[in-house]
Amino acid sequence: MPPLSPIEPSKTLEIIQSVNAKKISFEIKKLELPIGVEGTFGTIHHPGAALAVPIREDGKIIILRQYRFAVSRRILEFPAGTLETDEDPLTSIKRELQEETGYKASQWDPLGAMLPCPGYSDEIIHLFLARGIEPLSTKPEGDEDEDIDVLEISATELNDIIASGNEALDGKSITAWYRTCQFLKTELFL
Description:
This protein has two domains: 11-45; 49-189, Nucleoside Triphosphate Pyrophosphohydrolase. The chain is 19% helix and 42% strand. The protein has three helices and ten strands. The chain has helices at residues 89-101, 155-164, 171-184; strands at residues 11-21, 24-32, 38-45, 49-54, 61-68, 73-77, 80-82, 103-114, 125-135, 148-153. The chain is globular, with a radius of gyration of 18 Å. The two termini are 19 Å apart.
């Protein structure tokens, strides 16, 4: 996958307000944009994240049904997690896959990066295809606030879920699934 387009930073004229919460922060700044226009903008600063699309040898896809407080509902999504300080995305997602699913993977293919909410956040999510999936003898402890059900579904079922719109999925998971299908280029996944 080619890298993201180059950064064209805005000039910070004034930091008006800043709020920190867990691993993210929110800043309101007066900026001068690269085109010379000045304005006040709010930005969520995020350390980045990594996501895995785990596919077993039998073609079953491991996906999560997870409660998300911001939307007050359970959604389908692939295993993912926020990067720790100075953490490599692949190291992060290997840990997250084990913590969230109880599986590990022996083969990892990068699927590129994505910007999930560029209108108000600087988050970059690094996407990976995980294969050579094996269950762990003991699932490690995850975060105490995670409410997760691990599901195993076929590619056809996932495509049908996405097409129907009957179940909520997040954008990062749909993007990662699309890139997986393009990477594998098999009829099973198209």
